[in-house]
C-alpha cells in the first residue's frame, strides 16, 4: 500500500473544484436564478453577494480536495479507476449535498422542487468532478 500523493490530491482536488464551481455557476446564474431569488425573498433574505459567493467558491474547492483525498484513500481497497472515483464522489455528495438539502426541505426553507433540481444537478456535477480528480491523481 503506497502513501498518498498530497501534491496530486491538491492538484486533482482543485481541478475537481473547478468543475463543480463551473457547474454551480451555470446552475445558479442560468438554471435556478429566478427560483432561488423567489425563495430568498420568501425568507426575507437578500441574494448572495460577493462575500458569500467567495465563501461558496472556496468551499467548493475544499470539497474537490476532499473528493480526491477520499479517492486516494479508497484506492488500496477498491482499486484505481473510475468506479472508485464515482464511489468517492457519491460519498461526498451524500454528505455535502443530500443530507443538508433534506434538512432544508424538512424545515420548509426551500421548495422541494428547487432542492430536487439542485440535488440531481449536484450529483452529476460531483461525479464529473470525481472522475476528473481521480483521473489526475497518481500515487507518489
What does this structure look like?
The chain has 140 residues and is an all-alpha fold. It has one domain. Helix content is 82%, strand content 0%.
Which features would summarize this protein structure in a list?
5 helices; mainly alpha; 140 residues
**Number of helical regions:** 5
| Overall structural domain count | 1
In N-to-C order, the SSE pattern is HHHHH
Q: What is the mean predicted local confidence, pLDDT? A: 93
Number of strands: 0
Specify the biggest β-sheet: none
The poorly predicted ranges are none
Helix content: over 70%
Shape: elongated
Structural class by sheet pairing and helices: mainly alpha
Proportion in β-strands: under 5%
Rg calc: 16 Å
- What separation lies between the terminal Cα atoms? 11 Å
Strand and helix layout:
Blueprint: H1 6-31, H2 33-42, H3 50-78, H4 82-106, H5 112-136
Helix pairs in contact: 1-3, 1-5, 3-4, 3-5, 4-5
Amino acid at each position: 500500500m503506497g502513501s498518498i500523493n498530497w501534491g496530486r490530491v491538491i492538484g486533482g482536488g482543485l481541478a475537481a473544484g473547478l468543475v463543480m464551481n463551473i457547474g454551480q455557476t451555470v446552475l445558479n446564474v442560468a438554471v435556478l436564478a429566478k427560483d432561488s431569488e423567489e425563495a430568498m425573498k420568501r425568507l426575507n433574505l437578500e441574494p448572495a453577494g460577493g462575500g458569500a459567493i467567495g465563501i461558496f467558491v472556496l468551499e467548493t474547492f475544499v470539497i474537490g480536495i476532499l473528493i480526491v483525498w477520499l479517492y486516494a484513500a479508497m484506492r488500496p481497497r477498491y482499486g484505481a479507476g473510475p468506479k472508485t472515483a464515482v464511489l468517492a464522489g457519491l460519498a461526498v455528495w451524500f454528505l455535502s449535498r443530500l443530507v443538508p438539502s433534506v434538512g432544508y426541505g424538512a424545515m420548509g426553507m426551500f421548495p422541494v422542487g428547487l432542492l430536487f433540481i439542485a440535488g440531481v444537478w449536484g450529483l452529476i456535477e460531483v461525479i464529473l468532478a470525481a472522475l476528473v480528480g481521480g483521473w489526475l491523481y497518481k500515487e507518489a
